Amino acid sequence: KNQVEQSPQSLIILEGKNCTLQCNYTVSPFSNLRWYKQDTGRGPVSLTIMTFSENTKSNGRYTATLDADTKQSSLHITASQLSDSASYICVVRKQTGANNLFFGTGTRLTVIP
Amino acid sequence: NAGVTQTPKFQVLKTGQSMTLQCAQDMNHNSMYWYRQDPGMGLRLIYYSASEGTTDKGEVPNGYNVSRLNKREFSLRLESAAPSQTSVYFCASSEGTSGSIWGEQYFGPGTRLTVT
Description:
The complex is a heterodimer. In chain A, 0% of the residues lie in helices and 58% in strands. Chain A is an all-beta fold. In chain A, strands 2, 4, 5, 9, 10 and 11 form a 6-stranded mixed β-sheet that branches. Chain A has a 5-stranded antiparallel β-sheet with strand order 1-3-8-7-6, with no helix packed on it. In chain A, a hairpin with a 6-residue loop joins β9 (86-94) and β10 (101-103). Chain A is globular, with a radius of gyration of 14 Å. Chain A starts with a strand and ends with a strand. By secondary structure, chain B is mainly beta. Helices cover 0% and strands 47% of the residues of chain B. Chain B has no helices and 11 strands. In chain B, the strands form 2 sheets. In chain B, strands 2, 4, 5, 6, 9, 10 and 11 form a 7-stranded mixed β-sheet that branches. Chain B is globular and about 40 Å long. Chain B starts with a strand and ends with a strand. Chains A and B meet through β5 and β10 of A and β5 of B.
């Protein structure tokens, strides 16, 4: 069964600290994996995309990693800011099939001053 | 560019009432999608339109209908609303070039629907 599991469900950190969010998937055959950021009351916005051959990709203070062998991805946030408070959603795309996007339930991050 | 716009932002319906959620995009995207988002669950695909003139069912199509009015607009209709359809509805679009209709999706701000 194609699944995407994210952990933790929620996380509270102090401003300026780092954190890492996890995404494990069983989707196969794998095409790519995206991390989206969803601010409260808004739609998700893509942060980064990881393809099979990519191990690490950075977007400012956000760094995503992918281990296609173990089917794990992480999103590392450095020097957190209050504006990082949001839900982070992992979305995995399958190579074949009609409905081939699989969404995680997200990690709710709260950054406190 | 406004991106993806949705109307209304909020709606309260009584059980059995009907309504249409409107979505428009100004990015000249080929593909458009309707999702619902419920607490503790990931986004679930209701219907999608890979290109103008085509629509297909997603994971949870029951109780909904869609219309791809033109390349810009994709509407979602609830014919007889039920409390189980209380949710936040998101419209999205993507460039939808050949072989990658599931590329980066651009989401609208959402419609919060409550059915009593």
